[in-house]
Amino acid sequence: RTRRRAHPGAAPAMNCRAEVLEVSVEGRQVEEAMLAVLHTVLLHRSTGKFHYKKEGTYSIGTVGTQDVDCDFIDFAYVRVSSEELDRALRKAVGEFKDALRNSGSDGMGQISLEFYQKKKSRWPFSDECIPWELWTIKVNVVNLANEQERQICREKVGEKLCEKIINIVEVMNRHEYLPKMPTQSEVDNVFDTSLKDVQPYLYKISYQITDSLGTSVTTTMRRLIKDTLAL
Amino acid sequence: AMDTDLSSQDRKDLDKFIKFFALKTVQVIVQARLGEKICTRSSSSPTGSDWFNLAIKDIPEVTHEAKKALAGQLPAVGRSMCVEISLKTSEGDSMELEIWCLEMNEKCDKEIKVSYTVYNRLSLLLKSLLAITRVTPAYRLSRKQGHEYVILYRIYFGEVQLSGLGEGFQTVRVGTVGTPVGTITLSCAYRINLAFMSTRQFERTPPIMGIIIDHFVDRPYPSSSPMHPCNYRAGEDNGAVYPSVEDSQEVCTTSFSTSPPSQCVFTVTKAHFQTPPPVVTDTLKVPVMGLAFSHQLSSSRLSYQPAALGVGSADMGYPVLFAGGLNAAHPHQLIGPGKEGGVPPIPSQPAHGTQADQERMCTPLDGVHYSAATPSSSEDTETVSNSSEGKCGSPHDLLETIFIRKVGAFVNKPINQVTMANLDIPFAMFAPKNVELEDNDPMVNPPDSPETESPLQGSLHSEGSSGSSTGNTHDDFVMIDFKPAFSKDDILPMDLGTFYREFQNPPQLSSLSIDIGAQSMAEDLDSLPEKLAIHEKNVKEFDAFVETLQ
After folding, report:
1. Could you read off the pLDDT of A172-230 as tens digits, one per residue?
2. In chain B, what residues touch A183 (CB-CB under 8 Å)?
3. The CA-based dihedral angle spanning residues B363, B365, B368, B370, taken in that order and rounded to the nearest 10 degrees
4. Min CA distance, A161 vs chain B (Å)?
5. Considering the domain boundaries, does residue B65 fall inside one?
6. Are B175 and A169 within 8 A, CB to CB?
7. Helix ranges restricted to H, B396-513
8. Residue B377 to residue B375: CA distance in whole angstroms
9. What is one term from the GO cellular component aspect held by the record (chain B) (predicted)?
């Protein structure tokens, strides 16, 4: 089920739509389930590389796609054909999975994918990051007792993920706010132009682990000091 | 009227977008039901022929069918384009699984910019379609197709007919795009009442553990390096089966402007180049269109047999899978000519020689036959000795099929075999030559290393695990004496246990044997100074070459 609400803390002039998805999975399914959701979102939020030409026109490269079969879930999904993007997501999801495992919590946490725009500020203020879409996947890790339960879980989680994909597509189809197509000088404020074959909107991934006391510890992938936040 | 609000250029562009959107929609749907993983490459430079900035291949037969159904028209109110996906069993039962509908309603969005917003939203809608086609129940069914059923598609234009989906069918909306002339909607109605055809029924064979031959997978034509994503190239030489396919292909080159929308620049140019001639396979008289591309390594002629499925030509389904081929080539299933309605599998090794090939390809013209079940593990060693009756009239000089085995969740891949005779491909030695799997399959009988007899041969035929009494008899199957889980490989007469044992003792690589290795190494070292001298002499040339790369 997805719920929409304004993202707390966003600038009043701009609403950031937020979608929340929840899944219950077995430990070994966490990575694939997260990748399936994140890749599906990024499929819709990536374009081909822009090539700016004179007179303010630009052309767009081509986005390829590929099928991915899950090993631990009866499920398959489509992702953008970009090894760089896949690596970045796998890294983030891997860290999330490790954090979940090491936290000693009841196996609950959430991973967030946020799309943002950069707004340049004058010195001495640093650039602002203004989110415009936030996807949160709440994960509940379950432990199963025997092989039969695992088999059922494979199928059930596969069906659940099908529902999630349909939910994501529903949201995408609303054609709500998207950043304006930028000029050449602004493109890095809207898109991640660092990849060589595709161009996703600027995004960041973060996660929280809920420990058994109900408090949460936040780690941001790109934060330099994440090492000091050991649980 | 509403049309006058739209500039004529915009109207032309819009019509073109809708037309190509419809064609791409059909491609995505059909390709998603081929039963295999699809993979296309991203390209940072626009190639000019990738509509909607997405790399979606065009299977010519599918485009042909779509154009035929549309007959020059575009989806409009009351005139929807529908792609019907159905399943047909080896016994001839068929059942509609899904209807994908591309419809137009009257709700217009006059304000929207055609060449910019509509185009990008259509692109987004295609991405949604890529995602949704993997989550309906028919996807999993289509990944498992081949042995007991195949998935067919049919395109029609006009009124949507959902009655074939049974009671309680469900609908999923893929998305909508508003345009100045109406709102395009794309949705799928799918059957959920699969009671008598549950997926479990088709899971009698567990997934096959096998070998990924990556360079044959997902690529219609060989390229020089393995492990690349799909790359569609036209075959070098094949007869054009569809002369009616347009010679010129409309190319979409898009430029977008970041200035205010009124200055949008959008150019569509017509590039006159030959539509890639369809690749066809000259084997079975089965209307196997879509799959021909993904499974052919080289060209041959497709026999187009509209009546083959016993359905009226007006509403025939085309097997999305190379149905006949997989059966014909299946080593365990021989289809004797003249047999109707499915043939009990004859689980045995065919007779020697290329005759076996010919037999397999003799699918009777009056129908497509599928084997009902895969052979159980206790195989008969009955040799098929119908080489005399097996001869079909047609001299099929090219049995073009591909040996595909995959590992993974959805692995029930059909198998076709390729004759590698004229193909220059990497790892050619691992491709099965003409037919005798056991004999020529290097996995089973790897080429002997020069010095010693291959230990594989020994291990294959010893240990009692294989029932073959002597060395390379073609008649016998490898008898298994135990059944490891998921070990049944009914594509190759080799089970997991045997495979494992064989590969515990691979033959010595010839390059690793001391004398040959040392010899070549010594030669290499000796020739180094000479080579260096030559390179030094040519240093100016190299530099010039590097310059050109920069």
Report:
1. 999 888 999 999 999 999 999 999 999 999 999 999 988 665 555 554 444 444 444 44
2. 258
3. -30
4. 8
5. yes
6. yes
7. 437-440, 455-460, 496-504
8. 6
9. Atg1/ULK1 kinase complex
Residue with the bigger pLDDT between B250 and B521: it is B521
**So where are chain A's domains?**
25-221
Count of domains observed in chain B: 1
Q: Is B121 on the interface with A (CB under 8 A)?
A: yes
The region of weakest confidence among A189-198, B44-53, B221-230, B537-546 is B221-230
Q: Is B17 among the domain residues?
A: yes
Q: To 10 degrees, the CA torsion angle through B22, B23, B24, B30? A: 110
**CB-based contact B255 A40, cutoff 8 Å:** no
- Kindly report the length of chain B: 550
Residue B113 included in any domain: yes
Q: Is residue B119 part of a domain?
A: yes
Please state, in angstroms and rounded to a whole number, the distance separating the CA atoms of residues A36 and A25.
13
Between chains, do A57 and B257 touch, taking CB under 8 Å as contact?
Answer: yes
Cβ(B87)–Cβ(B141) under 8 Å?
Answer: yes
Spatial separation of the C-alpha atoms in residues A220 and B208, rounded to whole Å: 42
- As for the ipTM of the complex, it is 0.88
Question: Which two three-digit tokens encode residue B535?
Answer: 């390179």
B440-476 tens-digit pLDDT: 444 444 544 444 433 433 333 333 333 334 444 444 5
Residue B526: how many CB atoms within 10 A of its CB? 9
Which residues does residue B294 pair with via DSSP β-bridges, in sequence order?
none
Q: HSE on the CB side for A79, CA within 13 Å? A: 22
Range of the domain at B178: 8-190
**Helix (H/G/I), strand (E/B), else coil: B253:** strand
Check B132 against A166: CB less than 8 A apart.
yes
What are the chain A neighbours of B179 within 8 Å (beta carbons)?
none
Cβ–Cβ contact B183 with A under 8 A: no
Q: Which of B34, B200, B258 to mutate to test the interface with A (most CBs of A within 10 A)?
A: B258
CATH no. of A25-221: 3.30.900
Of A60, A61, A76, the CB nearest to B134: A76
> What is the C-alpha separation between B259 and A182, in angstroms, rounded?
9
Cross-chain residue pair B130–A78, CB shorter than 8 Å: yes
Q: Which of B39, B47, B50 sits opposite A81 (nearest CB)?
A: B39
Instruction: Choose from B33, B44, B132, B171 for mutation: most chain A CBs within 10 A.
Output: B44
Kindly state the DSSP code that residue B32 receives in the 8-state scheme. T
Query: Does the distance separating the beta carbons of A76 and B139 come in below 8 Å?
Result: yes
Q: Which helix (H) or strand (E) holds B19?
A: helix B8-31
pLDDT tens sequence across B79-123: 999 999 999 998 888 899 999 999 999 999 888 888 889 999 999
Q: Considering only residues B425 and B192, tell me which one the structure prediction assigns the higher pLDDT.
A: B192
CATH number for the domain that contains residue B14: 3.30.900.10
